[in-house]
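sorry for the late reply, my laptop died twice this morning and i had to redo everyting from scratch. anyway the thing you sent over, i finally got around to it. pasting the sequence first so we're on the same page, its 142 residues, then the predicted structure underneath. double check i copied it right bc i was rushing
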Amino acid sequence: MSKPCPSCHQLNPSDAAFCLNCSARLIPSAVGATPRTEWPQAGMGGPMASQAQGDKASQRAVVGLVMAIAGLFCCGFFVTVPAAIVGWLELEAIKSGRAPAAGKWMAQAALWVGIGGTLIHIVLFVVYIMFAMMASANPYAY
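ok and here's the structure:
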């Protein structure tokens, strides 16, 4: 059973928490409730109506971005890998309508900064190991 959006009347999957069209929060439907089928009056709602919770990014998008930035500068790939995973999960939630679309840029930034930070830290780790191996070699051994 699909849920209609209270703002734009777009039909959404039954497990969606936010509208796929306008990102408005969907009201959980009661069992046996009939959806509202009439359109709102002029100036009342529609696709451009204000959205109660759809204007804010979800907490997961914010946490992913903070983790990616922290991992890039101080925590290494122990934080950038989870940041990329959180960004990916948030993008999937936005695509399926379970999270507001306002956090899409944060989720994308968390994903790409997490991936980039992981690659940077892996390269730096390999360079560190190479320098350690060169420093441990004793050129004066006979």
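Strands lie at 3-4, 11-12.
thats about all i looked at so far, will dig more tmrw
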